[in-house]
Amino acid sequence: MSIRPEAIAPCGSDVSVNRFSAVVAGSVYLGDATQLTLRAGEVTLRAFVPDRAGGLHARVGDTLSCSVDPRDIVLLAS
């Protein structure tokens, strides 16, 4: 399975499709976006979150609810 980093988005409790919790393991401010390293169980994910309306205020150790639009998931042949 392949998910592009910009497809992973922090979300609220109103989202129910492809929602998961992840712990912020790293955060780098890039000017127009924040690059997050997320740990969801045994899986490490990278997310690029555009800075809109004041940006994302997530710190290392915070738990975020995240989602991925099903159209942004690519299944790869093994």
Q: Any descriptors?
A:
51% strand, five-stranded antiparallel β-sheet, two-stranded antiparallel ribbon, mainly beta, 78 residues
Write the SSE topology.
Blueprint lengths: L1 E2 L4 E3 L8 E11 L3 E8 L2 E8 L12 E6 L4 E2 L4
Antiparallel strand pairs: 1-7, 2-6, 3-4, 3-6, 4-5
Give the beta-strand count: 7
Low-confidence stretches: none
Distance between the termini: 10 Å
Mean pLDDT: 90
Oligomer: single chain
Helical amount: under 10%
Helix-strand string: EEEEEEE
Strand content: over 45%
Q: Strands of the largest sheet, in order across it?
A: 2-6-3-4-5
Biggest sheet details: 5 strands, antiparallel
* Overall spatial form: globular
Secondary-structure-based class equals mainly beta
Radius of gyration: 12 Å
Count of separate DSSP helical elements: 0
